[in-house]
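Notes, Module 5: Reading structure tokens.

Key idea: the token line is not a picture. It is a compressed description, and you learn to read it the same way you learned to read a sequence, by spotting repeated patterns. We will look at two proteins. The first is printed below with its tokens.
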Amino acid sequence: MTANIKAQSQAAALAEAGVYYAMLMLMNKDPEQRWGIDDQVREFEFAGAQIKIRIIPETGKIDLNYADQRTLVKLFESIEIDEVKASELADAILDWRDKNELYRLNGAERSEYEAAGKAYGPRNGPFETIEEVQLVLGMDAGIY
């Protein structure tokens, strides 16, 4: 138990060191050394441990529990998904999170999941984790 507490404390201290180092590098006066908010993974060693940091811009995130159909279609089109597939995915996401069994034009409710051989149906509620998006009918690893 003591070893676990020690390991957790060390991990927390290393994580905090990584946050402070990232803040320092974001404010670096030298533009050649300054980090950007660019989703790039950066690695460095500190106190005998390898630390990886990725800075993701918050403005680029979309809350799938509140995004409308148009926003979702544009999101999928931005990663070069064709218009038809983008519309199907958007409607399937909206059907996943709505509270009814009425399906949208290109959506998917319980009967479509059953027809696809899935042992589950849509949540009919908000996404609880981002990983849950992988369960939406039509979603694949490449799109996720």
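Here is the second protein, with the sequence above and the tokens below, as before.
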Amino acid sequence: MEEMEVPTEGLHEQINEKAGEAFEKKEMKWVLFVAISTALMAVFAAIGGLTAGHYSDEAMIKQIKASDQWAFFQAKGIKADIRTLQPTAFPNSTPADSLKKEQALIMEKAKSYEEESEA
């Protein structure tokens, strides 16, 4: 029995021949240029996306640090207020005035983290 020839085999060969002829005639070189330029644009877009993600993560970390500093600021304020209201309850502890000074330094640090996060 004879094998039947698959009709697509002949088409495949013809397509390859025509593509080779077109490439030799410089008709297909622009397609190669478009493919390469598209690949390069995809690479640059990927690099840009990764860089943007990095800066977004850094901003989030700075915002978290600022939030932590504000919580520390509030804790120092509460301690200072308690020591002002009941100075005899904590005789050997840090005075309220010292806590207020520390609180001011903490506030400056928290504001600097917020500014870095916004930048």
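Summary for the second protein:
- The mean pLDDT is 82.
- The two ends are 79 Å apart (CA to CA).
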